Amino acid sequence: MTRSLGGAELATSIRNDASVAAAALAEIGVRPKLAVVQATDDESTAWYVRSIASAAKRTGILCDIVDLGAAASTEQIRSTLVELGHDPDVHGIILQTPLPDGTDLDALREAINPAKDVDGANPVSLGRLVARLPAFAPATAQAVIALLDHHGISPHGRTAAVVGRSTVVGSPVAHLLVQRNATVTVCHRHTTDLAAGTRDADILVVAVGIPGLITADHVADGAVVIDVGTTATADGRLLGDVDAAAVDGRADALTPVPGGVGPVTTALLLNHTVDAAATQYAQTRSDSLLAGFRSSV
Ligand code: ADP
Q: What domains appear along the chain, each with residue ranges and CATH number?
């Protein structure tokens, strides 16, 4: 029988920590604020964004949903991101995908102020993560590691396989696992024999977006499987990349979809926003103290 590695308990504890920190900031006059920029008619995306906003409010974080509509141009989205980057009342910025067809996502990611990049989307954040410097990791990638930690599963000295190499999930997860001393194989759409890449892994992380891609053949006996995939169906269900029934009994543990990586990701976004608010407050204070010192000498 495969254990279910749920994320609800961990998400609650991360949100509780964030709400204690948000309350402490409120006492000194700082109200952490998150801005989520979206440009799509897709109902499941809109639902996800509303769920972030309501979790933020429950945590004591202000949240603005900036909806630019499905016809928004790259330039409109870019100038909105730049404006939010300069707004001293906004501490965290998320650019929600999908964006309209033809949008230059790379250019937009670069337009997110790295100090407010709570979902680690700017290449500066990814570069710093790879260089092992302080940065906001993409929340989904960090959620994978946080879930392993929470369930007492150490990557140290183990073999891991990551399926998917996107800059927001697969690649940062692979780096974080290496930083935790795992030996990591990365598989992607050009991997000719996927099962050969995954079936010896102690820890298997799947972030592809193809429901049921991973079956028993891909999974080692006793492996820990983290399913990051979330594909919404027309009837409102959320499907993971792992065929849970097929791997049941073979894997030692599997994250459920929904209820695994997802809630931890949302909680980490809030946690990052509170961190960003604290860091920006400290920066403003030290800037003004320094300015006062300079004008007095
Ligand atoms: P996400 O944002 O969830 O990471 P993307 O759509 O950006 O999703 O990336 C999907 C990733 O999945 C890509 O890295 C791609 O190479 C990988 N992928 C797609 N199809 C397959 C497949 N059949 N086998 C292995 N990897 C795949």
A: 28-115 (3.40.50.10860), 139-261 (3.40.50.720)
